User: Fold these one by one.
Assistant:
Number 1:
Amino acid sequence: MSIVVFDSGIGGLSVLREARMLMHDHPFVYVGDDAGFPYGDWQGQLLTQRVVGLFETLIQDFEPQLAIVACNTASTLIMPALRKQFDIPFVGIVPAIKPAAERTASGLITVLATPGTIKRRYTHELINKFAGHCSVNLVGATQLARLAEQHMQGDRINLNTLREELLPCFIEHEGKRTDIITLGCTHFPFLVNEMRKIAPWPVDWLDPAEAVARQAQNILNQCAHPTTPAVRKLYVRQDIAIMTSDAPSVPTARLLDGLGLQLHQQHFPSLAKSMGTA
Ligand code: DGL
């Protein structure tokens, strides 16, 4: 049975990569809501309605065994609504604040995320619960997700914009320096090499994608019906990608194709309704 991996764009491919490595027996349905991108500035209730509406269609049409919400901006908001509405397991991704607080030597950590994730109550609860002994610098980047999309599509990115967004992550205080930056947006791992070049000093960049994939695998192991390898071979395996705009750019289409994801056109009645056309 399939696994849905959902994001606002192509950033969630950083999570798909890890999920495929751990759960190669399953076909994947990658969904990028590029018609709604970027999610960073969406008002909470509207974003919840939008994503729940998209999942209504995905669950009805694909009957996935599990869904990964590979988007911090959505996960820090909508997991309760998704779990209430649908009875498949959902795994979300949230900034790796606990591991950062456990690993930091200087006690100065930065959460780099979208403005939406930075303002969420859930993010502040994580900080209060796990990072009380640290100084947590919250940086809401308005341009980085878009820069990451450009970079992934092979475009040249504006390094000045990248620098402006990144430099507030680095703090020096009483002889101590930020030593960990947690990447609180699934788009950002694709920019990390560029970020390293700009960073004023070396830091540890935390990406929770692998931990999320492992959690999904554990849940599947608990609920999967035992199947022998011989039976598994019978599964037809074609990973697909759905972009809600229905017209991804040529570089995006090539990127998805290169990752072995066949583009699939999907009708979402909830989107048509919200545009007044259905
Ligand atoms: N990739 C998404 C995240 O992890 C957000 C990007 C956006 O839509 O702004 O937060």
Number 2:
Amino acid sequence: MRAVLKIGGSLLYDDDGQVRIDRLREYANSIKSLVNDGNLLVVVVGGGRPARVYISAARTLGADEAQCDWLGIKAARNNAELLGAALGDFAYPKVVDDYDELEVAVNLGKVVLLGGMVPGQSTNAVAAASAELIHADMLFNATNVDGVYDKNPEKPDAKKLESVTIFQLREILSDEGIKAGQYNLFDPVAIRIVERSQIPTVIFNGNNPENLKKVFNKEKIGTRITHGTKK
Ligand code: UTP
């Protein structure tokens, strides 16, 4: 399978802000075994805690949104580099920072790693654009919740959805922030790309690295985004 895997940056840091070294190793091992099974993988890594720390400091110092975004972009690239270190020879040797290079790199048989790309979006948009560009069969989005909920998951009556249409998803996420460091599950650019190319997408909990294999094996975890007609 040709697939894009997005790993939320929040999965890579513990509550004290330390890098979860063991988890990075576990992700790398799962990715290596997926490659050995014949899968072609592009992995996009999010900015996580370092992105938030830099963005909030820069904002306090008077930075504009674009400057804040660049700090998030670079933090995400650094996180991708960490995963690259754990992947060793399995990874294309540098974090890809433009889509032309992605098109070339993806055909070299290595895992291609990306972080952020351009201001005004999150790494979910990078993952969606990459999936579109490489004609991925699937886009897998590992995050720190079990999937998409019908309302704010902190509300006691919130229900996790097994599947959601792209139209419902847009509705559910309509209150999300659009400023640097404030995107949550999906940003508007990611939604538009997934919608226009009808990219089969699953959002799942990446806190358990075992879930990576499960989702590739088509086990029913997380929430699947479907592309039905608008109601
Ligand atoms: P993300 O919000 O994508 O990080 O990027 P993340 O780790 O996936 O988020 P969580 O922690 O899992 O929820 C961090 C910030 O970097 C900027 C945005 O400001 C974004 O909020 N960014 C990222 C861009 O401006 N452009 C990009 O292409 C990617």
